[in-house]
Amino acid sequence: MLENIDDNSLEEIARIACGGDDFPAYRRGVELAKLLQQAGWDKVSPYNGESRRGWLTDQLRARRRVPGAIDAVVCRLADRREYIPRHEPLAAAEVTQMLNEVLTLEGFEVSHSRGRPVVREYVPPKDQEQDTPAVVLHVTMSDLVRDPDLAAVLEDRLAEAITCDRNGCYASAIIMLGSLLEGVLLDAVKSRLPDTNRPLDKWMLGELIETAHREKWIQADAHGFGGKLRDYRNLVHPNAQVRLGHAPDRDTLSMCWPVINATLNDLAATAT
Fold first, then answer.
1. Higher pLDDT, 12 or 142
2. What distances in angstroms separate CA 113 from CA 84, 101, 161, 270, one per listed residue?
3. Is the model's pLDDT at 14 over the cut of 50?
4. Residue 117: which residues within 8 A CB-CB, separation 6 or more?
5. How does residue 133 score in pLDDT terms, banded at 50, 70 and 90?
6. What confidence tens digit (pLDDT) does each residue in 59-88 have?
7. Nearest Cα to 258, choosing from 101, 88, 35, 75?
8. Cβ count within 10 A of residue 129
């Protein structure tokens, strides 16, 4: 899809891949060559010690007209498997957002299908201004949640979280995301553990997260950071915020969105 990508966009993809400063992951020259190999490129030229960004940009330009070559690199950059050795569980979500800021100008975006990145035509989020940065969630509720009535409710919760985010209502957005997380995990328990004798209304969010991790429905990053979202979701109780000692802000909410991304991607990838 990206064979006609603009030169400036290509250079920006190279900058994201190289990393450094405020970027989620820094790659040395030899790691850039490995990135291309991991993306499926054959006969990758060895890194020759020049500017990392210049070298990678030249490599991308050389294969820009090869169908799927740039798509493959973009997808590898957005793939959570790329960051397992780095112990940076949220890097893929941050890199995906950076890539989409570039790709949407070209009319494309990175999405996920059953937990794996794909490049597709850009689809503006419903009911949002196109110049508003989109929060990228990679699967829809109807694809993930088997109960159609519950899926519709969770879609509404997601829409409310986005609206709250756009209007600076950060605590409300976090509460909606916590509710969304609880809903998708409850549906997973209902559909994947049919023999459980425990009534669904007796499950706590923390127990749902632990069960999902134990059953290998979600990976360690979604498990660990899901606990943080659970803690912030408890701000629905005013005294919890008093004990916390501060009000959630945009930075707090920005940490919660990747938790939802990771959980939905994992649940989609482990669905049967």
1. 12
2. 19, 20, 23, 12
3. yes
4. 74, 75, 76, 78, 79, 96, 110, 111
5. very low
6. 999 999 999 999 999 999 998 888 887 666
7. 88
8. 10
Place of tokens 């890097």: 91
Q: Answer for the pair 144, 268: CB distance below 8 angstroms, yes or no.
A: yes
Q: CA–CA separation, 48 vs 245, rounded Å?
A: 52
Residue type, 95: V
**DSSP E strands: which ranges in the chain?**
108-113, 116-121
* pTM flag (> 0.85): no
pLDDT exceeds cutoff 80 at 41: yes
The Cα 269–Cα 272 span in angstroms is: 9
Give strand pairing partners of 118.
Answer: 111
Banded model confidence at residue 240, pLDDT cuts 50, 70, 90: low
Instruction: Give a three-class secondary structure readout of 218-259.
Output: CCHHHHHHHHHHHHHHHHHCHHHHHHHCCCCCHHHHHHHHHH
How many whole angstroms separate alpha carbon 82 and alpha carbon 20? Answer: 16
Q: Please tell me the distance from the alpha carbon of residue 272 to that of residue 193, in angstroms, as a whole number.
A: 12
Taking the C-alpha atoms of residue 143 and residue 139, their distance in angstroms, rounded to an integer, is 7
The residue length of the chain stands at 272
**Where is pLDDT greater, at 144 or 243?**
144
Structure tokens belonging to residue 3: 């064979």
